[in-house]
Design goal:
The complex is a heterotrimer. Chain A is built from 18 helices and 13 strands. Chain A is of the alpha/beta class. In chain A, the strands form four sheets. In chain A, strands 2-1-3-12 form a four-stranded mixed β-sheet, with helices on one face. In chain A, helix 3 links the parallel strand 1 and strand 2. Chain A starts with a helix and ends in a 5-residue tail after the last helix. By secondary structure, chain B is an all-alpha fold. Chain B is 69% helix and 0% strand. In chain B, helix 8 crosses helix 10. Chain B is globular and about 75 Å long. Chain C is mostly helical. Chain C is flat and about 75 Å long. The two termini of chain C are 21 Å apart. Classes of the chains: A alpha/beta, B mainly alpha, C mainly alpha. Chains in contact: A-B, A-C, B-C. The interface between B and C is large, with 114 and 111 residues.
Chain lengths: 424, 321, 300
């Protein structure tokens, strides 16, 4: 009898003790800096992990920073299996926001989350270029990309093209369609695609070069719609590729990394992707002979600009408890040549700030970039609405479930009307 | 048995009586304490569970209901009250409607298949012999795995590069689009759910069958009752209450299917294999529509209550208590 | 029961008591039963077989022959690599999840027993209302309250901590646990309580020293249900512990496999490691688990 009492007493005491430790047991995201002019404490860095941007790459940058600033500890976190910006929202709304994050497109919904970096000395200098300005919104600078990626590219297998009797790279969608047919006839899998975010990013790559730089502002004002623009043409085109067997009908179930490696090893004729896959291609054991050409205009004539996006830009969260260390770390990421080079080389980016030995394909892209106009979408006030990407990712996958271009575009327009308030 | 009179409830079978008592039936006073229990010990016994439950379940429930009438965004900010707009948006959104369809199909098909099959399998298993224990274990073991991991396991087996499709292509057959065809994706969810959870129902019904006195069945057999009659008159009435409760619990659990969708199909293709729980979390976190997510959550809650109510009503109507 | 008495009173011819050779129909039925159950069992085991067999194969072997078992080509290296992988500390997640499970079991029983005793033994209407109040919880899906719960945990400083997760999990276990406990306690004769009361035992003592030892079977049921539920929980640790929190087996494997299911020589060993504890536990404790889960259900 007495034994049970004792057991209960011990358990209750343990419970009370445990509950009183609750505060201490809480995971603290960032510790405030101790007094002193050197940055110190702990900060968290939210990054995008990909097959080429691995923990090792980010850790290398962190190690270098911590060596120069021994009082600071940087913890790297990522979205696990989830969507990068979606998970960031989860973290912010559950009070676990990181201190520094990969730059997110700034829009009216999230603008209050980021710290204004305009008064930082290095920012003033670095934001003189068009690229450097692309992280600004309504006059305030929230991030400064130091590199760029080229997004509107079609990679192709040179040997497959030769085998299919294609003598020159296509310069129009009509030529691309006919080349896909030739590849199919030669027994080659014509066009690669994958699941998750890939179909939407491919449509975006196909479409953006044909949009004006203020397309999103126009859409909000109702001047343009998805259904009567390059969006619909390209979605229809993609749907026809699925129907004609140029794209695998089950591609939406394939994994991006697998497909990219497959393409790099020579199993597909063409692949719409961004310049970041050049690192994948270089890392594969038996890379095929890969070339690249630019995505042509949709409708109209003339040379399409290259759709580029800023890369290696970082934002500081307003909610940070360690502003000093966060700002110092972001300065490091934006100015330290070694750090930039590590990130840029792993991500296959292009940068005017650093140079590194690029793979042949990457050099081809750089040559291409030198000859073309560059288009930077999502800048100033013409930005993609926050909820657009998840919605579009899902809608566009319907090219694989038998829906047509007009159907999908209409669904996107209906969503827009129901959810995005029209501008005055 | 317990010395107290049960009033009008006394004539119902023992199992039902206990159930009804548990749900708040009347009991007469006992001797002794005379109904006056000391207050402080009472509070001490109540408080931990009550406080924890109220603060972390009931209050959040009320908050969710309130949020569903606002335009809460994913960053946790509320700027205005929008009345029923969220609910309207929800039902106008084809993705959410699809999610409700998928959830309904999944719940109904799995509940029916699992319960019917489990009774049959339990009857097959209700024999003596060492092999029967092996069979029972083989059918039950997936129940100890989480839905998330079950989904990853089956994903490795069913996806376009997975075990089954590799085998099919090796024999020159076309691969089956388990995850890339919208309807097959739902079928995949159903199959894995059954694999994962049927074992519990089987074991439950087996235990129920084993409490039916053998003598009763033998006597019925001696009296000339056929297998089917034995089932209908002896087995089914005694198993009935267990079946009802299991149907309610299984179907309520199925309404909340989320983990499996994450790992098996990711809600795809094109969100065509979303369940409502998955949609709620997607709306609440990845999109900027947490107010709608709350509305979806309230709908899920109402559906749960309605489902339990319907099942109990149907069973009472068919008077198998 | 009358039928049984009648049957027993009817004299049975001694000769009939000798074991008869089962009729052909009965033998066919027996064979049919075995075939059906064997087919079902094999089908049910195949997924496990696939995971186990492929956890020891090279990528090419997995891709070319996913169902094959070639002893010469098996290797432990992939499993070892998965165990020592710095991105997913498997053994650490076992330990952490086990601790979470034990804490849950302790607190669930600690909190639910007194309140169930009170409700089960009370005649007051308000206590029955309390039971209904708790039973409301069975209808509330976790997703409905997850977002507000994170706000509450944030406000009390418990977000991101083990205690916050524990509190939410224990709170969620209250409805079913209390339901099972109350049902079971009500089958215990009141005379026992009354005798203890006459002997001078107060409410607390009656609950813990007299009744608690008697409800062991249902406590076993609850312990198993709670344990399994917590071990396999995904959403709650994912959201509440956050990216910097410790990883449970489920959140750990999700992070390890996540979006990039590229490398089957990582996926299958990771899955095997994730399944192994539950499977081993099941094999060792089969009888207890199945008995525990059904004891409470059939008794109540």
């Amino acid at each position: 009898m007495k034994r049970q009492w004792r057991r209960i007493a011990v358990l209750s005491t343990a419970a009370l003790a445990g509950l009183s430790l609750a505060g201490c047991a809480g995971g603290s995201q960032s510790e405030p800096a101790s007094s002193g002019s050197e940055p110190s404490g702990t900060i968290t860095w939210y990054v995008n992990k990909t097959p080429t941007m691995t923990s090792a790459v980010y850790q290398k940058v962190v190690d270098e920073y911590e060596k120069q600033n021994p009082k600071v500890t940087v913890k790297v976190i990522d979205a696990g299996g989830q969507d990068l910006s979606g998970y960031l929202k989860t973290l912010i709304s559950s009070g676990q926001a990181p201190d520094v994050t990969q730059a997110q497109t700034v829009n009216p919904d999230n603008v209050n989350n980021w710290l204004d970096l305009s008064d930082q000395a290095w920012v003033k200098k670095a934001s003189q270029t068009a690229l450097g300005k692309s992280g600004s919104y309504e006059g305030k600078i929230y991030s400064v990309p130091v590199a760029y990626q080229v997004q509107s590219l079609i990679f192709y297998n040179k040997d497959d093209f030769a085998k299919a009797g294609i003598t020159s790279t296509p310069t129009s969608w009509a030529e691309i369609d006919s080349d896909l047919q030739k590849l199919k006839q030669a027994g080659i899998a014509p066009m690669a695609s994958a699941g998750d975010w890939v179909p939407e990013s491919q449509i975006v790559a196909m479409t953006y070069p044909s949009l004006s730089s203020h397309w999103w502002t126009d859409r909000t004002a109702g001047k343009v719609t998805f259904s009567d623009s390059a969006w619909e043409s390209n979605i229809s085109r993609f749907a026809s590729w699925v129907k004609n067997g140029y794209v695998r009908k089950d591609a939406v179930g394939l994994d991006y990394a697998n497909v990219t490696n497959d393409f790099a090893e020579g199993n597909y004729g063409m692949y719409i992707q961004g310049s970041f896959i050049t690192t994948n291609i270089a890392q594969v054991s038996n890379p095929a002979n890969i070339g690249v050409f630019a995505i042509p205009l949709t409708g109209g004539s003339g040379k399409a600009p290259l759709y580029v996006g800023g890369a290696e830009g970082w934002e500081v969260l307003k909610s940070t408890k360690n502003k000093a260390a966060s700002l110092d770390f972001v300065k490091f990421l934006g100015t330290d040549k070694q750090a930039i080079k590590t990130l840029v080389a792993a991500d296959g980016d292009f940068s005017d700030v650093v140079s590194y030995s690029m793979s042949p394909v990457a050099q081809d892209i750089q040559t291409l970039a030198g000859k073309s106009d560059k288009l930077i979408v999502d800048q100033g006030t013409s930005v993609t609405p926050a909820a657009f990407a998840p919605m579009a990712t899902q809608q566009i996958q319907n090219v694989f479930t038998g829906q047509s271009g007009p159907q999908i575009s209409k669904a996107m327009d209906s969503w827009w009307t129901a959810n995005i308030p029209a501008s005055k | 048995m317990t010395g107290s009179s049960e009033g009008g409830v006394a004539t119902a079978p023992a199992a039902t009586r206990r159930l009804l008592e548990t749900l708040g039936g009347r009991r007469s006073r006992t001797r002794g304490s005379g109904g006056r229990l000391p207050l402080l010990p009472q509070l001490a016994m109540l408080l931990p569970a009550l406080a924890l439950f109220t603060v972390l379940v009931i209050i959040p429930l009320v908050m969710s209901i309130v949020y569903s009438f606002t335009n809460l965004d994913s960053y946790g900010r509320v700027t205005s009250v929008v009345g029923l707009a969220n609910y309207k948006h929800l039902f106008l959104d084809p993705n959410t409607v699809r999610a409700l369809e998928v959830t309904a199909v999944l719940t109904i098909v799995c509940t029916v298949v699992i319960n019917f099959a489990s009774v049959g399998i339990a009857m097959l298993l209700n024999q003596r012999g060492p092999m029967y224990n092996v069979y029972r274990s083989a059918i039950f073991y997936p129940y100890v795995f989480s839905a998330l991991i079950s989904g990853f396991v089956w994903s490795a087996i069913l996806n376009p590069d997975g075990a089954i499709n590799t085998l099919l292509t090796r024999f020159g057959l076309a691969p089956v689009p388990f995850f890339t065809d919208p309807n097959l994706a739902v079928v995949s969810l159903i199959v894995v759910t059954i694999w994962n959870s049927m074992g519990f129902s089987v074991v439950l019904y087996l235990a129920g069958l084993q409490t039916i006195p053998q003598d009763l069945l033998e006597a019925a057999e001696v009296d000339g009752a056929s297998s089917f009659q034995r089932f209908r008159k002896v087995i089914w009435p005694l198993l009935g209450p267990t079946v009802t409760i299991n149907i309610v619990l299984v179907s309520i659990g199925l309404l909340r299917t989320y983990d499996l969708v994450v790992s098996l199909t990711g809600g795809g293709p094109a969100g065509q294999s979303n369940t409502i729980a998955y949609r709620i979390i997607a709306l609440g976190f990845s999109s900027n529509e947490a107010g709608q997510a709350s509305a979806g959550a309230v709908v899920l809650l109402l559906a749960t209550i309605a489902l339990a109510g319907i099942v109990m009503l149907v069973r009472r109507r068919t008077s198998w208590t | 029961m009358d039928v049984t008495v009648e049957a027993m009173r009817t004299p049975v011819h001694p000769a009939a008591r000798r074991k008869k050779k089962p009729s052909t129909a009965k033998r066919a039925a027996k064979l049919g039963r075995h075939v059906a159950l064997a087919v079902l069992s094999v089908a049910w085991i195949i997924p496990l077989y696939v995971v186990v067999i492929n956890a020891f194969k090279a990528q090419d072997d997995i891709l070319s022959d996913p169902f094959g078992f070639a002893p010469g080509k098996l290797s432990l290296q992939y499993l070892w690599r998965a165990i020592v992988n710095p991105d997913f500390n498997v053994l650490g997640s076992y330990g952490f999840t086990a601790m979470l499970v034990v804490l849950n079991m302790v607190f669930v029983v600690l909190f639910a027993t007194p309140v169930s005793y009170l409700i089960a033994r009370s005649v007051k209407k308000r206590h029955q209302a309390l039971l209904v109040y708790f039973l409301l919880g069975t209808f509330i899906p976790g997703q409905v309250i997850l977002v507000p719960v994170t706000k509450i945990l944030l406000g009390t400083g418990l977000m991101g901590s083990l205690w916050g997760l524990l509190a939410f999990q224990v709170a969620g276990s209250m409805p079913v646990t209390i339901f099972l406990f109350v049902g079971y306690i009500r089958t215990i004769p009141r005379e026992i309580d009354e005798a203890a009361e006459i002997d001078g035992a107060g409410l607390f003592r009656r609950c813990w020293q007299v009744i608690f030892p008697l409800i062991r079977p249902i406590v076993a049921t609850v312990v198993i249900l709670t344990g399994m539920g917590v071990w396999n929980d995904f959403v709650n640790p994912q959201i509440i512990l956050g990216p910097l929190g410790a990883k449970t087996v489920t959140t750990g494997i999700y992070a390890a496999i996540g979006k990039y299911i590229t490398d089957y020589t990582t996926v299958f060993p990771d899955l095997l490691l994730a399944l192994a504890p539950a499977l081993i536990f099941f094999i060792l404790m089969q009888r207890n688990i199945i008995g525990g889960l059904t004891a409470g259900a059939t008794k109540s």
